Amino acid sequence: SCYLPPLRYPATCTFKGSLESEKQQYIIHGGKTPNNELSDKIYVMSVVCKNNKKVTFRCTEKDLVGDVPEARYGHSIDMVYSRGKSMGVVFGGRSYIPSAQRTTEKWNSVADCLPHIFLVDLEFGCSTSYILPELQDGLSFHVSIARNDTIYILGGHSLANNIRPANLYRIRVDLPLGSPAVNCTVLPGGISVSSAILTQTNSDEFVIVGGYQLENQKRMVCNIISLEGNKIEIREMETPDWTPDIKHSK
User: Fold this and answer.
1) Sequence-distant (≥ 6) Cβ neighbours of residue 49 within 8 angstroms
2) DSSP conformation class of 81
3) How confident is the model over 190-249, as pLDDT tens digits?
4) Rg of the chain over CA atoms, in angstroms?
5) Which DSSP string corresponds to 163-184?
6) Which one of 60, 100, 231, 247 has the fewest beta carbons within 10 angstroms of its own beta carbon?
7) End-to-end CA distance of the chain, in Å?
């Protein structure tokens, strides 16, 4: 086991392992450390045992080689499954500007990460980056939904342009015996949102709550996302009766 620092804005996802002991695993990547530094580490947390109400976790740090994603926060990591194999997919986020460009006034200034897709093989600890022409902007605090070999990227914030475009991308990962194939399709019907909460309600349905649609304008609308085959449908759901605390908080 290893020490897991209390990270802010890391990317997290669940991982279905093939062994009985790997049924419940959680992948954690990046984030801000308590010293306000950015982490490039990746951790695998698994449930060792459950005794009565006590749950024991094991945390392991994974070393990566190849095209290692730079330290970042506000990004996403998801697991895709294809042809009996699995890969982690890292996208987006923000990172500190390069040290050569730093000044005293801008020492902790951040910039969008390049819009690269990273495939991470957790078994062998290697990472490969892909440049897809459909992904033009580095996005942070977007919503990502993974299902089998496909990931959907919704919304997000572009720091360079200070916009929250109504993006909707479908990224498909094929894992044959040879090199992986990654392709991206731009879909209509996206939504403008950043920093939202995503909850899965059943195997084919998700709910998006909260977030921002403008810099100082919270998003009070909730959405239901339905997946069926290769189709994704996003529709508004009945708005809850928000309490005053929620309406006036950040």
Assistant:
1) 55, 56
2) E
3) 999 999 999 999 989 999 998 998 877 888 889 999 999 888 999 999 888 888 888 777
4) 18
5) B----EEEEEEE--SSS-EEEE
6) 100
7) 36
User: Rounded to two decimals, what is the model's pTM?
Assistant: 0.91
> ∠ CA(127), CA(166), CA(196), 5° rounding?
70
> Which CATH number is 11-248's, of 3.10.180.10, 2.60.40.10, 3.60.15.10, 2.120.10.80?
2.120.10.80
pLDDT of the residue at 18: 63
Per the model's pLDDT, the better-predicted residue between 17 and 116 turns out to be 116
Q: Give residue limits of the domains in the chain.
A: 11-248
Distances (CA, A) of 191 to 1, 118, 147, 160, 242: 40, 24, 19, 19, 21
Q: What is the DSSP string of 86-130?
A: EEEEEE--EEEPPGGG--STTTT-EEEPP-EEEEEETTTTEEEEE
For residue 4, how many other CB atoms are within 10 A of its CB?
A: 15
> Which residues, listed in sequence order, are joined to residue 153 by a DSSP beta bridge?
144, 169
